Amino acid sequence: MLATLTRVKSPRWPSPDICLGYMLGQQVRRNELSSFSPGCSSVPAAWRRRATGGVRGVGTSCVLCAKVRGNTKKTELSEKKLTHHFVDHRNVKLVAGSGGKGACSFHSEPRKEWGGPDGGNGGDGGSIIIKADRVVKSLAQITPVYKGEDGQSGGSKNCYGRNGSPKYISVPLGTVVKEQGKAVVDLSEHGQEYVAVFGGAGGKGNRFYLSNENRAPMVATPGMQGQERVLQLELRTMAHAGLVGFPNAGKSSLLRAISNARPAVAAYPFTTLNPHVGIVKYRDHEQVAVADIPGIIRGAHLNRGLGISFLRHIERCRFLLFVLDLSTPEPWTQLQHLRYELDQYESGLSQRPQAIIANKMDLPEAQEKLGTLKGLVTQRVIPVSALTGQNTEELILHLRELYDGYLQAEDSGESKPTRW
Ligand SMILES: Nc1nc2c(ncn2[C@@H]2O[C@H](COP(=O)(O)OP(=O)(O)OP(=O)(O)O)[C@@H](O)[C@H]2O)c(=O)[nH]1
Ligand SMILES: [Mg+2]
């Protein structure tokens, strides 16, 4: 026990042999650096000059090396990192502020010794308000617990306690607030607010209880507890158009080709793990939001693949762009499967205004399949190549037609209003 205490209390100096080793290490490193021969071609002259200048020169070598390698381009975020940034559901516990307690005091001053009760009321606790904000893009910044500000206690001389100020939680447009699985509110308008929990009322000071019957009340009440709730915040990506397709169909490549979004693209399935929204801008400054929804496979409605969580995002798109991979043997079967999955999730979901996009038209076998596909479907088929950018103009123009149709429907009150 004593030995342990001594060990804990003793100052943490490195042992002499560690010190010596460290010093030797420094020495060896210095020697190594100074031993660079001037004729060593793999090390640039500028780097060598700095390095031989001592340890200080080594500190700047990373920057120098990066410059030598010509690695000045900013690397793109990987899907893993993008996943970290995009969060589409969160459970939060909200506890509103409690009310401050009322004061119990009596006024007294020279020549007015029995001045009567003067205890002020406590302030009300702060509420917590969930507010839709178009600047916020994901629920990543939402913390698990929020506590409202408590009201201050009342004081003597009839001083009332200050009310706790309300706390705002900013969420993206299209956030659905749920409690025990049931939707409570859908925050789809910028600035829309929902008072999730109310702060507790402040307690009463003894002045409040002054009456003709009781000239010297000794009662003061404590503040009430703030409301407490556990809520689920769920983000349904709100985009005008949704790119729906099997994994590897080229949805992310297409979104990169037509918008400013930069989702990851790779030749393996399920590259995209979260929806990405890109904005297609038109000359008249109109903007259409297009969402790249992660790949859907057969049985997605039974939670296979990435499951139903992404069918939820499709539900919120006004029109659909079915992306078919024309490098597969029978691309039209993909369309049937996609429609089936959407309808299994919500009946009539596959009947939204739509277009079929035949992707990978740059491949030689695609032309023949395009003819067969056109013969099998009644909807408009737009052949494109996301890789080469071939015919993406037709897609962008058709997107605008779909968007205008949606706006007309919204004006005539046919569809549910949705704003981006
Ligand atoms: N030849 C050719 N290849 C394409 C085209 N579009 C996409 N690809 C390739 O197809 C592969 C998959 O592309 P992605 O854009 O990642 O496909 P995705 O549909 O987003 O895939 P998931 O994210 O897994 O659902 C990549 O290797 C792309 O380079 C195209 O028009 N032509
Ligand atoms: Mg993708």
TrEMBL record:
<dbReference type="InterPro" id="IPR006169">
    <property type="entry name" value="GTP1_OBG_dom"/>
</dbReference>
<comment type="subunit">
    <text>Associates with the mitochondrial ribosome large subunit; the association occurs in a GTP-dependent manner.</text>
</comment>
<comment type="similarity">
    <text>Belongs to the TRAFAC class OBG-HflX-like GTPase superfamily. OBG GTPase family.</text>
</comment>
<keyword id="KW-0547">Nucleotide-binding</keyword>
<dbReference type="Pfam" id="PF01018">
    <property type="entry name" value="GTP1_OBG"/>
</dbReference>
<keyword id="KW-0999">Mitochondrion inner membrane</keyword>
<dbReference type="GO" id="GO:0005743">
    <property type="term" value="C:mitochondrial inner membrane"/>
</dbReference>
<dbReference type="InterPro" id="IPR006073">
    <property type="entry name" value="GTP-bd"/>
</dbReference>
<dbReference type="InterPro" id="IPR005225">
    <property type="entry name" value="Small_GTP-bd"/>
</dbReference>
<protein>
    <recommendedName>
        <fullName>Mitochondrial ribosome-associated GTPase 2</fullName>
    </recommendedName>
</protein>
<feature type="domain" description="OBG-type G">
    <location>
        <begin position="239"/>
        <end position="404"/>
    </location>
</feature>
<dbReference type="InterPro" id="IPR045086">
    <property type="entry name" value="OBG_GTPase"/>
</dbReference>
<dbReference type="InterPro" id="IPR031167">
    <property type="entry name" value="G_OBG"/>
</dbReference>
<dbReference type="GO" id="GO:0000287">
    <property type="term" value="F:magnesium ion binding"/>
</dbReference>
<comment type="function">
    <text>Plays a role in the regulation of the mitochondrial ribosome assembly and of translational activity. Displays GTPase activity. Involved in the ribosome maturation process.</text>
</comment>
<dbReference type="GO" id="GO:0005525">
    <property type="term" value="F:GTP binding"/>
</dbReference>
<feature type="domain" description="Obg">
    <location>
        <begin position="84"/>
        <end position="238"/>
    </location>
</feature>
<dbReference type="InterPro" id="IPR014100">
    <property type="entry name" value="GTP-bd_Obg/CgtA"/>
</dbReference>
<keyword id="KW-0342">GTP-binding</keyword>
<keyword id="KW-0496">Mitochondrion</keyword>
<keyword id="KW-0690">Ribosome biogenesis</keyword>
<dbReference type="InterPro" id="IPR027417">
    <property type="entry name" value="P-loop_NTPase"/>
</dbReference>
<keyword id="KW-0472">Membrane</keyword>
<dbReference type="InterPro" id="IPR036726">
    <property type="entry name" value="GTP1_OBG_dom_sf"/>
</dbReference>
<dbReference type="Pfam" id="PF01926">
    <property type="entry name" value="MMR_HSR1"/>
</dbReference>
<dbReference type="GO" id="GO:0042254">
    <property type="term" value="P:ribosome biogenesis"/>
</dbReference>
<dbReference type="GO" id="GO:0003924">
    <property type="term" value="F:GTPase activity"/>
</dbReference>
